[in-house]
Amino acid sequence: MSTTPPRGPKKPFRPFSKPGKPFKGRGGRVLREAAPEFETGTVLLYGWHTVSEALKNRGRRIRLLLATENAAKRLDEEGIAHEATIVPVREIDKRLAATPDAVHQGLFAEADALDAPDIEDMPAEGVLLLLDQITDPHNVGAIVRSAAAFGVKAIVTTNRHSPEATGVLAKSASGGLEHVPFVTVQNLARAMATLRDQGFQIIGLDSEGEEDLDAVKLRAPVALVLGAEGKGLRQLTRETCDVLARIDMPGAIKSLNVSNAAALSLYAVTTRLGLRR
Questions:
Q1: Domain holding 129: CATH number?
Q2: According to the UniProt record, where is the region Disordered (predicted)?
Q3: Co-location of 265 and 195 in the same domain
Q4: What band does 21 get if pLDDT is binned at 50, 70 and 90?
């Protein structure tokens, strides 16, 4: 009599190890098409600064961590707690095959998206950045990095027409995602009105602005609004600002890449408000 050999133990199921089609939910969380038992999806993180900062963030839940031997050794040497699966570099390359030229430095993670406050719950202090349909993940990532450096309290984006806080954006942010909350809203103009009611001064950055940013009479808290490259601020966004300010430049080129404009304006505003002391 033949018998069916017993099945071996099931391999642990690793949810969302293959990127699915994302859609955004409330509070900046990233939701994905998935098996019914998993309500939320993961974000993909790679690169030394991005992953190491995520590992140091107690609020970030890591679902899967892959590391090469050298990267795991460096984590140990720097005292960063981890539970990495040691893999050859080609395994991480395979995970990032859809991201050409991804520089992962031997680290790859899948993690829960971070929770974020609602716009109504934002404390009336410091500086916020509002992004008006800036869709390039490299630019947004660079903005996040500058925001983390200058102590920005949160970045506000719309549910639509903004990149996911994952992959290329996270790598460009160089760990900044762990320090600056993302707040997503349905309507940016409505969010600006809410912030004004909470005491924020709303300053739109525009190369055609009527005032030089250095001449604007500032009062904290401040919300700086940045528009997409080329298109700039949308008409309703412009009309909802308290003031439209430009950054005067002495050279032949009078406009900056949006991420550079963000860094320069943050330097100017935090210096004048005494927030860098």
A1: 3.40.1280.10
A2: 1-27
A3: yes
A4: very low
